[in-house]
Amino acid sequence: MVLIFTHPLALNHLLKKGRVYTLRSHKRKGKERDWVTRGRGKKAIADVKTRLLLSLPYPFHPHRLAPYVNYSGFKSPEEWYEALVKYIGYRRPYRIWLYDVRLLNLRVNVEKLGKLLNPSRESL
Description:
Elements: E1 2-4, H1 8-17, E2 19-24, E3 33-37, E4 46-57, H2 77-88, E5 95-106, H3 110-117
Parallel strand pairs: 1-3
Antiparallel strand pairs: 2-5, 3-4, 4-5
């Protein structure tokens, strides 16, 4: 099952560190092994393993993210929460799910990986 990373901070953290915590507005269906892409219709970047850590009622206070922020790609729980709110937009989920995503192997070459880690402003 595909795991889409639209925010470059989270994707870059996964690709550089091999692990990222990600917030999702829907619970993933049972599969642990997934593949990552930057958007619908885009090519696979990597194979990953996902594990559900916890679910939170939405909305919640950003301090609830503090224990996980070091592996999120964001500088603070507040920055991470703001990105979540922006992503959710008008939708109002009743819960948010936090997943631990671990890199298994890359599907792109080093040159392509460099472009993913340092995207131009036009591609964001």
